[in-house]
Amino acid sequence: MKHTIYFNGDVGIKDTFTIAGPKEGEGPLANYFHNVLRDDILGQKSHEKAEILMMKSAIKNILNRTDYTTEDIDCVFAGDLLDEITSSNFAMREFPIPFIGLFNACATFCSALIMGAIMITGGYAKRVICATSSHFGTVERQYRYPLELGAQRTPLNQWTVTGAGCTLLEGGEDHRVKLTAATIGKVVDYGVTDSNDMGAAMTPAAMDTWITHFTETGRKPSYYDAIYTGDLGHAGSRLLKKLMLKEGYDLEGIYDDCGALIFNREAQKVGQGGSGTGCSNLVFNSYIYSQMMSGRLKRVLFVPTGALLSRITPLQGESIPGIAHAVALEVK
Amino acid sequence: MENKEYLEIVKKEMPKSKHLKTMVQAFFTGGLICMIGQGIADIIKLIFKDLELDIVLQFTTLMMILLTGILTGFGVYDKIGSFGGAGSVIPITGFANSIVSPAIEHKREGIVLGLCTNMFKIAGPVIVIGITASVLVGIIFLFIGM
Amino acid sequence: MNTLLQYLIVFSVGGFICMIGQVLMNLTKLTSARILVIFLLLGTLLEAIGIFSILKNFAKAGVTIPILGFGANLAKGAIEGAKEQGLIGALLGGTEAAAAGLAGAIFIGFIAALVSKPRTDK
Question: Which one, of A21, A51, A23, A49, lies nearest residue A36 by Cα?
Fold first, then answer.
């Protein structure tokens, strides 16, 4: 099977909604977010409960904005970084909509967009919501250290984005921004073992999906006005650009990384930049979408990456596999 | 591109820790914490003139742990840690912080199954290996002495 | 010894030990748990071969406050226990000496965790 699939021009974005945490609200994209939170606990008893509330709220909001009810939505694809994708499962308790949970680490949002587009193109759904969330507190606790531990961050660390967002995909209507194609990524592992260096772990996957996409579509990077990765971070994206140039693909001026965009690196002390399932989601559903709606960007390739480690795999001597999915969007 | 080739490129290209800065910060933080410990010991000696040195040191340890508990509880110790690095990990305060911080974090899962179960998540190895080593040292010395 | 000089020595020696730890952290990928264990064992070793008491006389809190001191204490307790009480002393002496650190950390840790509120990083 070829890795790239084409949607028949039918799948469009009806609307998006983003909820960003306080730190994200102090970053360069603050004005693009629909809702910025004052704190990240939201009056809940734990960060986990707060993340569930964020995702619930994002979905509720998008239904309100579009005047749709849960009856009008055919399926929800959602995921997050917690064990058993807790945030998504528990957020979906609230909505009587058919639900499929997904996990591809920080690439999950793209997986959701792809599955939604496939379902609509296949004629099985008219409207699909794609949602993800992440939270700094919950992810630190699960993957790294207790928040009060005096552990020092290395220069390669990233800062998990606190936020939830969703996209409402609709078929058969005239939408300005349409999903035209997708390249589904493979798991790629080049032996990176440093769990502090997610950027280097995921870069090979991004390369693999990019090259597959360009080869199978016959397009050059310059076909797109902008190409985004999810959270390779500053150093990771530099590395990717260099390696792609070696392969004959020039990405200068076209390529940027959502993790590098969402925070002001120097002022906010976030190491390599933002990361998490919410990272690519927030940047896409706020900034990238608005740039496309205004016509400033007409063709975009959106390629979030994910690092597929668990808490246990590094301890058992495993390296970190990565995956990257690509979605091509165009403005009509 | 082969794995090995990629890993070498990564090693070359990815930013490394700022050695000088972190070393100086660790030196300063560690030295400061030790000085505070010395100060506490000296104050105890001044107040309780007849106290044995060993007991003074034990009280000093307790005071340093108490201090760490307070700083961790108020969310200050993690800031000291991010500045001081090893300077905040290596003093006995680092050990205490590694016990208090997961305990606070897991309180949400209940006192017994959350707080208590996770208290030694990070410091566990210190206690296990420390006590095991002491038993071995004791046995070795017993045999040497015989 | 002049107090000021003593404090300077405490600062320098303590700082130096931590600096070595920092170098280890930077160059290798050792986590704080592993660093703690290494320095703990180092202290135990230094005490076992008799060097630690010399360092302690010189640098006082500069070597006793780092986890080095805790390790040394464990060894000292075990050795003294072996001398004074034979087998039972050898087995339990170390733990007895470490009691202050252990009981303190557990009790204070428990109370501190009980009364604190979980908060967020900025």
Answer: A21
End of a domain among A119, A144, A171? Answer: A171
Percent of chain A with pLDDT over 70: 100
Burial of A69 (0-12, 13-18, 19+ CB in 10 A): exposed
Residue A75 lies in a domain: yes
* Domain hosting residue A61, numbered range: 11-171
Position A146 in a domain: yes
Residues in chain B with CB shorter than 8 Å from the CB of C17 are: 30, 90
- Angle, helices B92-105 vs B53-73, to 10°: value is 40
With CA atoms as reference, report the closest residue to B86 among C28, C73, A266, A159.
C28
Chain C residue with the nearest C-alpha to that of A23: C122
Is the same domain home to A132 and A189?
Answer: no
Q: Do C14 and B30 touch (CB under 8 A)?
A: yes
**Mean pLDDT of all residues in C70-85:** 91
* For residue B49, pLDDT beyond 90: no
Are A124 and A185 members of one domain?
Answer: no
Residues A210, A133, single domain; the answer is no
Domain ranges of chain B: 18-145
| Residues C69, B92: C-beta atoms closer than 8 Å | yes
Beta strand pairing call for A326-331 and A177-183: antiparallel
Q: CB contact, 8 Å: A63 with chain B? A: no
Same domain, A160 and A231: no
Average pLDDT over residues C19-33: 85
Specify the number of domains making up chain A: 2
- Among A143, A196, A164, A148, which Cα is nearest to A24's? A164
What's the token pair of residue C57? Answer: 């006389």
Write the DSSP assignment of A147-177 as a string of letters. Answer: TTS-PPPPTT--EEPPEEEEEEEEESS--SE
Between chains, do B95 and C101 touch, taking CB under 8 Å as contact?
yes
User: Same structural domain for residues A104 and A230?
Assistant: no
CA atoms of B38 and B47, how far apart (whole Å): 14
Q: What is the ipTM of this complex?
A: 0.89
Total Cβ atoms within 10 A of residue A83: 10
